């Protein structure tokens, strides 16, 4: 893992977050975290939250995506995107550090 490369956020992900926040009473950041668990060893947790001290804050389109210090090494050089398909719409992570992942794309191993 090359820890010097932070994750990146696509314009499409920032646009979708802006749409979500436009409908919210209080706009929030999109928090992307890595936790132990899932069928492959680690899983992504994506939620709306306030930035916290020590978070990496990625900004674009007037929006914020945050990654905590513990999750950052697992997301080095990853791409945070938004996908809209017939089966549904969701934020997705393209993670070059993952050696394998489950079919749903929410868990992975390194």
TrEMBL record:
Annotated GO biological process: iron-sulfur cluster assembly
SUPFAM superfamilies listed in its UniProt record: HesB-like domain
UniProt cross-references to Gene3D superfamilies, sorted A to Z: HesB-like domain
Signal peptide (residue range): none
Superkingdom: Bacteria
Molecular function in Gene Ontology: 2 iron, 2 sulfur cluster binding; 4 iron, 4 sulfur cluster binding; iron ion binding
Domain Core: 9-105
Name the UniProt record assigns to this protein: Iron-sulfur cluster assembly accessory protein
